[in-house]
Design brief:
Bound molecules: 2,5-anhydro-1,6-di-O-phosphono-D-glucitol, manganese (II) ion
Helix content: 25-40%
Radius of gyration: 20 Å
Distance between the termini: 56 Å
CATH class of the largest domain: Alpha Beta
Order of helices and strands: HHHEEHEEEEEEEEHEHEEHEEEH
Number of domains: 2
Length: about 350
Amino acid sequence: MQIGTTLTRFLLDEERHHHSATGEFTRLMSDLTTAIRAISSAVNRAGILEVRGQAGSTNTAGEAQQKLDVTANDLVLETMDPLGHLAGMASEELEIPYALAAGSPRGKYLLVFDPLDGSSNIDVNISVGTIFSVLEAPNPGSDPAPEDFLQSGSRQVAAGYAVYGSSTMLVYTTGVGVHAFTLDPYLGEFLLADQDLQIPQETNEYAINASNRRFWEPAIQRYIHDCEQGKDGPLGEDYNMRWVGSMVADFHRILTRGGVFLYPRDLKKPDDPGKLRLLYEANPMAFLAEQAGGACTDGHSRMLDRKPESLHQKVPVVIGSRSEVERVGQYYREYGGA
Ligand code: AHG
Ligand code: MN
Ligand code: MN
């Protein structure tokens, strides 16, 4: 029996192709997967560990924190803090960037993450995930300023997610394709499942929370209306619809079999430009989408070109198969919307 290619071996092989690589990034990724394996274990045993339910606190967006949001956040912070790869971290669950412990060495990268994505799905045993983005610290070796995190997505060094589904998978990119690994729970190792993933371009599947329909902008109202008309409508084909409620799980499906995911701006909360967060949801997924031949926009412009204005900035998101993302852009141009 052969074990297959472990993530560590794959990372080391990638490192050898980069002449300037010091091995620092490989160690960062490898250590990050320790936190991810711990989160996976906590998610798998949530009912046994009594970590289901609400924590009784709220996060930066005023949303109720689940106990596992807090657990996952702490696992990443505590795992990565002492290791010296990072100069700083920022998380959905923290108002301001995390300050590394006084005795921890400061490294050359910044980590921005959503410790548990789709956390409202935990209590009902539906897939959740962790999303991460790695940036270069402008001042390696010293504590970052808050604005150091406000880098456009095109400057990401790496991005990826773990999806805690029927199996736990890790999907990441360093800008040289998108690779997927499955956690072998018996070996405790991530093993290569798919190399150079490409989002299928032929698609007829969309993902949107249709309960928000009455709050949508005209372009989205019209696009979804036309999808629903199927073969009899202007798009000329029958569409299917899926909505998991965890962006990680919805995106993982799109990466595998194509489609488009939309979380547009809506008038439910008129002051919010969207629901999803630019730095630790939209940007990492946009990097993965582009590396897999897909696209991600805010409806109008390329996500990775946006200059972040604040750590927890929200944005509208249209992501998936390139042709369908472009089609949604045409609807915005034709029918309007922010
Ligand atoms: P999080 O659990 O990190 O707050 O993210 C939830 C996000 C995203 O994963 C998902 O696509 C979306 O919120 C679901 O929104 P609805 O509850 O409006 O369906
Ligand atoms: Mn999230
Ligand atoms: Mn979250």
